[in-house]
Amino acid sequence: MGQFSISDLENLSGIKAHTIRMWEQRYGILNPERTSTNIRLYRDDDLRRLLNLAVLCGQGHRISKVAKLSEQELATAVISCSDDAHDYPRQVNALLAAMLELDEPRLHQLLSDAVRQLGFEEAIMRVVYPFLQRIGLLWQTGSVNPAQEHLVTNILRQKMMAATDALQPVQPAKARRWVLFLPEGEMHELALLFMNYALRARAHHVLYLGQNLPTRELPAVCGSYQPYAVCTVLTAVPERGQVQAFVDELAQLCPDTALVLYGPLIQAQANLTIPPQAMLPYLMTDFLALVDKLDPRAE
């Protein structure tokens, strides 16, 4: 069970702390504990309720009315409320509440609605990425358990694979080629799966090698496939002190191939020596901009 300060609730819900205090005093929407120094501490149930209230108030419902709803009535109202495709904070809050409740059908519905309204890529960039960033905040407070995280990851993985399968096939002989992989021990695949989709949607050809690939396999892959670029995402592997050695190894193994290096471990390296053939997009928008500048046809 998580413990949240009022500033945590503000960051996670988008509702200002003074508004939370006012709603609490006037309408009794939350039931915080108090420390010995009279500091409010909130629990998971408080966060779930506040997220649902934020969704409904963002749709124009009056707090004086929705504060009277039970938890089940709140959840039902969130699902049935009008769905503005461009109200991204509302969608993110609804996803967070569904995740905290382990409500798989609701997660599927909310994500499917976002894709239907916005298109797959726009839904990922406008809704899913902010959602994942909020999950990161919850991890920092110890308020996401492995079951919740796995539920979200597996649903998103299914959505990404289905969207990729629905794309028109690309002929490798006519397209710019990419190898996508995660290094040995790296299992965080969502960013790489989205890169796979984005490249294929732009008529690039991708050899998707997925998780946990030993780097010693890359010379044979590059020799046979002749890619334009090798792309990887570093989230948990290698150790921070080994990132430079890993980058240097990739440059040696694939000396005639562009390298695209992405992920939190790359971003955290202040003094990384970058090989001449390497590109380091900082954000996913940077990666998309990089790909958009490239002619998808083979040179």
From TrEMBL:
It comes from Hymenobacter fastidiosus. InterPro entries: Cbl-bd_cap, Cobalamin-bd_sf, DNA-bd_dom_put_sf, MerR-type_HTH_dom, MerR_fam, Meth_synthase_dom. Residues 1-72 form the HTH merR-type domain. This is MerR family transcriptional regulator. Keywords: DNA-binding, Repressor, Transcription, Transcription regulation. SUPFAM superfamilies: Cobalamin (vitamin B12)-binding domain, Putative DNA-binding domain. The lineage of its organism: Bacteria, Pseudomonadati, Bacteroidota, Cytophagia, Cytophagales. CDD domains: HTH_MlrA-CarA.
